[in-house]
């Protein structure tokens, strides 16, 4: 990056000694360990630490300026920029340092469905011939390839570097996920948003947010503070929590488009389940559109409509948007069929919270003649209240439950499993996730279906501080081929318990 004068990077409420206004800044960071000569170190008051305590280390590494909420002793010649809110200021600085952004950016929030909606919005735009990308839990997905990132909403420095890069490479349309952490920590405050979407709200992240209300308020920020008046808001209105989002959006002067059975922007008139596809009748501005959505599960209808609403809200032609829904592909690891044993399909899914697990199991039930089997676990260092709830949902909605490890992180994996097992009578326990998947696959009979939930696209398993390479896809595929070679009657791909004429094999 070319150097920028320090004053040009700072928000209007920053206080800076004018001597330093023209100081050239060649890089920015929030991590003292990453600071380099000529950089600005932004000291964040964190959850575990206060970044200002590391200002001296940043300076020792070459930082020439420090931004923060409180002054700390700094050597002569080092600039200090005082700001009232360091996280807000960081977003401003990052956006000023990496100035390019795609012209049209849509952000989606909600407890479940963000990754799916972001993928769908990107696919719809691409189908309309627009250079489109998405940023979220599965990383950056761009016309030239995919780059995995670790956060759903990257921190502002990483986020704006990415926005600048994709805009520079010709992307004009970008869909991104707005996580509650990201909204709460002002990670998106520097993003120029054209539209915002809301899917649903249920229990999640209560290890971080003190209450469900605080969690909801973080998500509301997208509509009440971040989207500029006149921007579009696509809101799924079939959930009771939706009203608060509609009210916030209306109060902000947004162009609200509600979607769903109760929606008035895109009204869902009917759903006709056709194998793993769904025939939808939709009403938009008085016209009725018939759409064959090539995805299973009621929840994917919700996601597809929010995505359509975002694209229409950003100016796309409605009929072309509805036509594009017919070619949507599910996001990686979201109710993704990875193969079949004895005709029993095996799905990898990212449900790691109660509502998502419930929706994923409900989505598969219509396709099961004998047993619905689920393998799942719960993440360590995350809201422990989710564990018994997920155990109870699995026991209620599946016929065979295997409780295994997800990402134990710093916790004792056996204690995490015990919390889920306590609410799941009849469940069996197999801690080793690979072994749990192999056991479930080996037992599959005609008429069964298997859901492997919780890790979706994740390429590793976090145990302690180590990330061990692990992929549900790879383990499941290996187990399926091992079962296939053992079982003479295995047919490979046909889930023969479904009427053949209702099948859409591409999506199975
Ligand atoms: C809980 C959480 O959100 N933490 C985020 C937060 O870190 P923090 O406030 O805890 O940082 P801290 O450890 O207290 O340190 C304070 C500051 O001192 C700095 N520091 C620290 C040590 C040092 O030697 N030198 C130094 O400069 C740190 O860089 C930091 O800026 O701010 C950091 C950037 O400023 C984020 O990288 C970090 O995300 C961590 C890695 C994380 O795991 N976040 C997850 C929970 C998260 O954000 N998840 C959401 C939701 C996912 C979803 O459900 O979809 C996401 O968007 O991914
Ligand atoms: N609209 C929805 N309602 C309920 N459950 C959903 C919905 N969409 C997806 N799910 C379930 O939640 C899981 C995660 O979906 P997705 O990755 O699209 O959501 P997300 O909001 O990005 O989640 P995360 O915050 O964990 O990244 C899916 O695998 C599926 O089980
Ligand atoms: N972004 C989510 C991902 C959870 C994934 C799940 N596999 C788990 O580890 O709980 C989180 O950090 O809470
Ligand atoms: Mg996500």
3D architecture notes:
The protein has 508 residues and is of the alpha/beta class. The protein is 31% helix and 23% strand. An 11-stranded mixed beta sheet has the order 11-10-9-12-8-13-14-15-16-17-18, sandwiched between helices. The chain has a 6-stranded mixed beta sheet with strand order 19-20-24-21-22-23, sandwiched between helices. Strands 2-7-6-5-4 form a 5-stranded mixed beta sheet. The longest helix is centred in the middle third of the chain and has 16 residues, at 298-313. The radius of gyration is 24 Å and the shape is globular. The protein binds ligand UAG, adenosine-5'-triphosphate, 2,6-diaminopimelic acid (API) and magnesium ion. 2,6-diaminopimelic acid is lined by residues 152, 352, 379, 382, 406-407, 454-455, 458.
Task: Report a brief summary of the structure.
By secondary structure, the chain is α/β, with parallel strands linked by helices.
């Amino acid at each position: 990056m070319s150097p920028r004068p320090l004053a040009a990077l700072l928000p209007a409420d920053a206080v800076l000694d004018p001597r330093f206004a023209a100081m050239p800044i060649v890089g920015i960071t929030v991590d003292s360990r990453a600071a380099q000569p000529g950089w600005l170190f932004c000291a964040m008051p964190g959850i575990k630490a206060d970044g200002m305590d590391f200002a001296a280390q940043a300076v020792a590494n070459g930082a020439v300026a420090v931004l923060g909420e409180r002054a700390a002793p700094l050597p002569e010649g080092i600039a200090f920029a005082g700001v009232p809110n360091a996280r807000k200021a960081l977003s401003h600085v990052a956006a000023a340092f990496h100035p390019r952004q795609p012209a049209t950016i849509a952000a989606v929030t909600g407890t479940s469905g963000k990754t799916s909606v972001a993928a769908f919005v990107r696919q719809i735009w691409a189908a309309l011939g627009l250079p489109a990308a998405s940023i979220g839990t599965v990383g950056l997905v761009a016309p030239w390839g995919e780059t995995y990132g670790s956060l759903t909403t990257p921190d502002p420095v990483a986020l704006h570097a990415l926005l600048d890069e994709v805009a520079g490479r010709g992307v004009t349309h970008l869909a991104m996920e707005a996580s509650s952490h990201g909204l709460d920590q002002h990670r998106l405050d520097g993003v120029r948003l054209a539209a915002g979407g809301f899917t649903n709200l249920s229990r999640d992240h209560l290890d971080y947010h003190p209450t469900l209300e605080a969690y909801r308020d973080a998500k509301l920020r997208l509509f009440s503070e971040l989207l500029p008046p006149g921007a579009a808001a696509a809101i799924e209105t079939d959930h009771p929590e939706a009203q608060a989002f509609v009210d916030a959006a209306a109060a902000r002067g947004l162009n609200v488009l509600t979607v769903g059975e109760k929606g008035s922007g895109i009204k869902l008139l009917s759903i006709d389940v056709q194998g793993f596809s769904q025939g939808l009748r939709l009403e938009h501005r008085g016209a009725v559109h018939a759409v064959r959505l090539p995805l299973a599960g009621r929840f994917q209808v919700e996601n597809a409509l929010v995505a359509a609403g975002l694209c229409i809200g950003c100016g796309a032609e409605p009929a072309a948007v509805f036509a594009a829904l017919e070619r949507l592909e599910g996001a990686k690891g979201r109710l993704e069929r990875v193969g079949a044993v004895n005709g029993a399909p095996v799905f990898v899914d990212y449900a790691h919270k109660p509502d998502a697990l419930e929706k994923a199991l409900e989505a598969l039930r219509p396709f099961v003649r004998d047993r619905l089997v689920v393998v799942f676990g719960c993440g360590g260092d995350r809201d422990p209240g989710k564990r018994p709830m997920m155990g109870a949902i699995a026991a209620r909605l599946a016929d065979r439950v295997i409780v295994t490890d997800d990402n134990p992180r710093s916790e004792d994996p056996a204690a995490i499993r015990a919390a889920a097992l306590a609410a799941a009578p009849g469940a069996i326990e197999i801690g080793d996730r690979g072994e749990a998947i192999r056991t479930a696959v080996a037992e599959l009979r005609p008429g069964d279906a298997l859901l492997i939930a919780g890790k979706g696209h994740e390429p590793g398993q976090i145990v302690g501080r180590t990330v061990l390479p692990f992929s549900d896809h790879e383990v499941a595929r290996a187990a399926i081929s091992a079962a296939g070679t053992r079982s003479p009657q295995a047919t490979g791909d046909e889930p023969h318990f479904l009427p053949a004429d209702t099948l859409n094999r591409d999506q199975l």
